[in-house]
Records
---
Amino acid sequence: MKKIFTSVLFLTFAASVMAQENLVQNSTFEEWNDENGRPENWLLYDGTATRIEGTSAGTYGTSWSQTGKGNSALLQYVNGLTENTKYTVSYDYKVTNVNSDNSFRHWLRWQNADRKYLSTDSYLDDDYEDMQFGGDNSVYMENSTEWKHVSMEITTPETAVSLYLAFRCYGGSTVAIANPMMVEGSGSGLSDAQAEKTGIYSANGNVYVLSNGVGTVEVYNLLGQLVRTEQVVDGCNELSGLNAGQVYVVRYGDKAQKVVL
């Protein structure tokens, strides 16, 4: 009976992970276009970009700085969305060179099948605030020189099939981005709430397990195959060496948590 329960538990989590396909292309920034000086599947306006290693979310991220007078934007169009559906958008960032009180913010807009931007009348109030679109130009992110995690839940209005996903820097500042994600439903990844609930979370390309004693941790891939077994001790345990950009299900005792590296 225990084996049957374990299989059912894993399949439940695996189905949840598979439903949460990351819709952002080249989110690991591993694919790079040297000729254009930017990551593949991303557009860059009025700025210069560099691929960086050792980010909060895995091996690669990207940083870029403004070269024009207004702002620089790193962006892509996330396609294949379903109207009237909840999505979670998340990313990690840090401002590596602060030249302005207002250095960075994200900028999101819905589009229909004709590539027309939808009126903000279509947005719910909480969506409007989270997406930080237009209006109040004083809405900027904290000028943090340490990695910060940002996550928001937004719902596609009617006729929306695409999202303009942009990261903007201002005032000659330099900003680094890692692990941009857009998944259907509630998202996963680096989260204080996740760590508090399960004691299992991901950061800096590693998995961390908070334990109050000695135990065994099992790591599964999306096919349900056991890829790692580790003995943990009391305190915070680090599991390194897993593949960046992959999704795993980590089991410890009666707890299981999907993590994205």
Note: The domain at 32-184 is CATH 2.60.120.260 (Jelly Rolls).
---
Amino acid sequence: MLVTDILSALPLVRGTQDPLFRQLYAQIKDAILRGTLGAGMQLPPTRELARLLSVSRQTVLNAYDQLSAEGYLHGAVGKGTFISDHLAQAAPGPHAARTTQTTQAPMRPLSARGDAYAGAMESVGFHQGKLRPFRVSMPSLDLFPFDVWSRLEGRRWRHPDYHMGYSDPAGYAPLRELLCVYLRASRGVNCTPEQVVITSGSQQGLYLLSQLLLAPGDEVWIESPGYQGASAPLFAAGATVRTVPVTADGMDVAYGIANYPGASMVLATPSHQLPLGVTMSLQRRLELLRWAAARRAWIIEDDYDSEYRYTGPPLASLQSLDRAGCVLYVGTLSKVLFPGLRLGYIVAPPALVEPVVRAKAVMDRHTAIVPQMVLADFMADGHFGRHIRRTREAYGERRVALLDAIASRLGGQVAVGPSDAGLDLALHFLRGHDEATVVARALEQGIETRALAYYANRMATPACAFAPGLLLGFSSLTSAQIRHGVEVLAKVLKAPS
């Protein structure tokens, strides 16, 4: 096929935002890379190609100039324009398949580590679509003072300072100081500002610690059932993940010690367990700390929504009881403020601060600085404390609305789990309903629920049995939405299976 025939058939679309010369440039470049146009071929003169394509000569000139600047073409006055000779080895040949984004397999297999990374979050569900009852673990965005946040952010952009350059990997110093004061007052965390490391959400904190502290094959305890997103970094690190059952007193520490005494790490949510909602008893906390100190094992305390306790003040953290320096406290601001903020933190034992900060620098140099600065202003001006008090009161009212609706419409169908804390509530079936069927039927009617079986981590061993049921989120819903959602669930549960 002649070069003119190839070029005259190039598809150019008029009336789009993409200029014609950019389209022509891209089409010729693609033909060269695919080998349709080979090295040394002479392209037609600009006037001739413009006539063939019914475009202006300037369009062709601009396309040729761009291709020449990038090394695809070369030419000389009086000789013509040619495809560069050095592309002969780069072109895959005239019959090579065109590479597209729909390619089914990579050029070569992923590494074993790459497989672990790519598969670690495979079964983790993500929020999609508009908000519906009963979306889990979702704060109420309608209660957040976005006008205040916008004003504070605008002030930072209007008056940039030296902090707008590369920043400390550990985070914005004023924010670390304010978080330290807050955590000491509200959660009893023993820390200095130097021990606080700002992360891009608690997920990054868990990943960073898994990579830093675990060798492939190290045993780690996790709660079962438990949040799979928190355990995913452990799998990515190549750890041997062991499930430990959860009872009314929290993680069964005695079970873990008896079955996996050589573990190197424990991932726990002692203040409010997801999804069952239980709190680890003081006896088990002390038992876990004694074992970890003797074993020289790390404990990662994932304290994801402890601000929201409705029957008394928030409980003191496990870290506040630690005397051996074995607890790493990980928190998030996604549940208190809004998930899109992607700010979390680690409170590391003094001996680990420097390694954690250095590892953080390897990962992403530092977390975005402007959100940190705005949050520091938000806290310093008192908005943070007011927002927590306001949302705690609102969520408490929504919790009562959910409990009342369940008592009224689902009595005899479900048993209610602990409800004194958090953004969600666990229900356990009393009449042998199939979780998957209930979830599917509810979704057909616009109700979004999460089966408790979802939290059974099938990648870990062994599987732990627990009563079937649902997890319902209530914090982002109005009382009317809650009552409607329970009404729909009542009809689903009463329908023949």
Note: The domain at 162-381 is CATH 3.40.640.10 (Aspartate Aminotransferase; domain 2).
---
Amino acid sequence: MPLDQTPKIDRILAVDDSPDNLFLVQTILEDSGYEIYLAEDGITALAQIEHSPPDLILLDVMMPGMDGYEVTRRIRRNKKLAHIPILLITAHGKSSVVEGLDAGADDFIRKPVDVDELLARVRSLLRLKHSIDEREHMMRQREDFVSRLTHDLRTPLVAADRMLHLILQDAFGEIPTELYEAVATMIRSNQNLLHMVNTLLEVYRHEAGRKNLTFSPCNLQDMVQDVVQELSPLASDRGLTLAVESEESESGTGNNQTTTVLGDYIELRRVLTNLVGNAIKFTDEGEISIRLIAASVKPASRVTKSWVTVEVEDTGVGIALEEQAMLFEWFRQGNHKRSGSGLGLHLSRRIIEAHQGTIEVQSEPKQGSVFTIRLPALLKPSFKG
């Protein structure tokens, strides 16, 4: 067998303040072919886990200084660590088991430890660990593939777009009139593909945690007006009307009314453009209404968070209930012939969630749709004179 295919030996960290218990567990597990590391207290265990994460942790509940519950909580709070299964060893009853599982443990075993039961639970949790590791490995492979694919595709698509525009501008000599429409069609198709590749790249960056957002105060009222001005010609070409409405929220009137949020202007504008653009695409007649509901909090209230709401309502084809549940997932295309790649709404949801907001849809077939965005308002402090 090649060296790079040698089976990996699972590493187990046993934590117990009793040297006799540690010796017993070490003997049992080493005889079964596992690599064992020992720690006699929680602080030492946490340091070892941070330096060299094991595949499984056997953790005694009752230890002086820091008990097993607190060790478990600290491990689960450490976002730098991949998921490590934790098997609690307890001499107590049901209440301690509940507390341990709530703290983040994966399983438990009671003292005195039965050898066969211990080995069975260890095998079970290691299977869980291997499954999680394999899934994460496949996700990293997928992310790497998407990243490479999108970067490799963008270069020829951008080059083709420039070349086709030069042809249309007679840069290489006059072309026959009948070819103009063909070249224009090629440009539109190429730009659609380039848009899909760019969207896929943005989705990948969000999924991989590599998207850096730049937060600053953003006035959604100004943003909505900009998007409407940009997309009005597209709506007019389809005989549709874009209407903008503004109103206060139900929190009451006061001097703390705002349509400003803390966010990344480019990303939030991308979401609004996508929602209004979709409304135009799936509406054959009528209008698209964009309602902006300003956050409004009474000066004397103790509200800690208020929301700016944007609703995009259309009179279009609507969305079936069974499709709505998966509308914001990866590559979930609708059944309508105009449905796109299924990436735009997924990206929109990732962007809104990154802003601590929500996005949802209400729709019925042939009755139109309403997409609602809620974002935390950037409230100005009120001062009493």
Note: The two ends are 81 Å apart (CA to CA).
